[in-house]
Amino acid sequence: MTTRAEAVKAVEAAHVLQNYKRHPVVFVRGSGSRLVDTEGREYLDLLSGIGVASLGHAHRGLADALAAQAGELLHVSNLFFHPLQGEVAARLARLSGLPRAFFCNSGTEAVEACLKFARRYWRSQGVDDRHDIVAFEGAFHGRTFGSLSVTAGEPYRTPFAPLLPGVRFVSPADPDGVRDAVTGRTAAVIVEPIQGEGGVRPIPQATTAAIAEACAATGTLLIADEVQCGLGRTGRPFYSAALGLTPDLMSVGKSLGGGFPVAAALMSEAVAAAVSYGDHGTTYGGNLLACRAALVFLDALGNGLIERVAAAGRRFRQGLDALVADSGAVHEVRGDGLMWGIEVDRTVADRAVDCALARGLLINRTAGTVVRLLPPLDISDDDIDDGLRRLRLALDDAGAALPAA
Ligand SMILES: Cc1ncc(COP(=O)(O)O)c(C=O)c1O
């Protein structure tokens, strides 16, 4: 007899584009930091849908708010006003210091909008030759053409070349390279304050200082891509501020809807003033359901969630430091709050996710040798301790399962 999981996999194999190499688990429900598969097996989720399920799974307040909103009004298009977009924009403005928001549905669209608005800014100044962008090696900004053009990895880029011209990549470890690359022809510098897909690597302080200096000297706009590391993920509203950066534009997404697709490009008044009616737009962006989800998340953020992430981060840091001290295969831990990258031997990395699944744990591997953790922002201390225990077992399994050399 075919199991439910086998039936799901069979229909996907027949009809869904095969662009994701999925792990062989079929999840059917969740609660807090726990997920349950078709066989009724429970997993502890230290990934939260790659940093999206910020309030955990089946959050009561979010579910109730979405149900109530769906019963009232879902969508009216951006041709009309509705009561929630301005409210979300005002809250994001208070949090970021950037007074205007453009709403969209995904991180890549938020980055795309930032890139377009940066170009629009220079055009509106009557400057026609400032369209170059400086980006960073190791960066990931999304997969639509503009965002892909400032994403560094060749495997992402090469199959779709040619991409946007005029993008220059600099090593995050090369502050002088930043000073050289940013010129009077640069429209914007784009930076992830902590590179997420690149292996959870904070931009070094010397480089952020060089970015700030070069942007100030040339008038170049600064775009902070906070899609992954922003909105409380690191125990502070935005990591760019922690690095001493004051961006002109900022992309946010992931955590914002707690699982409902909503993202935004935030910007200064100077940039916003360059954008006219019809310059950019989207059918769905910032509809009532999306904004309702964002308000639930922003309520939680303003009611102690950021402080809770900071405390949870200290607990993780202790446990992960102990892991480094105890294991020859675990070399370094990077990150803050609830965004962690654990540098491991490549052979351990190859098996880590499968070994974790076997231990009932969801983690993720990125940048080849990095085990990444992005748990729900409201994960409990008990779940953190359970997660650290399972992670240790999984990494031991991954090391022990290697064939003898
Ligand atoms: C920093 C950053 N920017 C942009 C994106 C793209 O976001 P999305 O997948 O929602 O398009 C991601 C996704 O991982 C990201 O981490």
Any overview of this molecule?
It is a single chain. With 405 residues, this protein is an alpha/beta fold. The chain folds into two domains: 4-59 and 304-400, Aspartate Aminotransferase, domain 1 (Alpha-Beta Complex); 61-301, Aspartate Aminotransferase, domain 2. The protein has helices at 4-15, 48-51, 60-72, 85-96, 107-124, 145-149, 154-157, 175-181, 205-218, 239-242, 269-272, 288-326, 346-358, 381-400; strands spanning 27-31, 34-37, 42-45, 100-104, 132-136, 167-170, 186-191, 194-195, 201-202, 221-225, 249-252, 263-267, 330-336, 339-344, 361-362, 364-366, 370-373. The strands form four sheets. Strands 4-12-11-10-7-5-6 form a seven-stranded mixed beta sheet, with helices on both faces. Strands 1-2-3-15 form a four-stranded mixed beta sheet. It is globular and about 65 Å long. It starts with a helix and ends in a 5-residue tail after the last helix. The site of pyridoxal-5'-phosphate has 14 residues, from helix 5. Residues 106-108, 111, 140-142, 192, 196-197, 225, 227-228, 253 line the site of pyridoxal-5'-phosphate.
The CATH superfamily of the largest domain bears the name Type I PLP-dependent aspartate aminotransferase-like (Major domain)
- Radius of gyration, in Å, reads 21 Å
Extract low-pLDDT stretches. none
Secondary structural class: alpha/beta
Number of strands: 17
Q: How do the strands of the widest beta sheet line up side by side?
A: 4-12-11-10-7-5-6
The fold-level CATH name of the largest domain is Aspartate Aminotransferase, domain 2
Secondary structure tally, helices: 14
CA distance, first residue to last residue: 41 Å
Largest sheet: 7 strands, mixed
Question: Averaging pLDDT over every residue, what do you get?
Answer: 97
Mind telling me the CATH class of the largest domain? Answer: Alpha Beta
CATH architecture verdict of the largest domain: 3-Layer(aba) Sandwich
- Counting structural domains, the number is 2
Strand content: 15-25%
Bound small molecules, by name, code or SMILES, are: pyridoxal-5'-phosphate
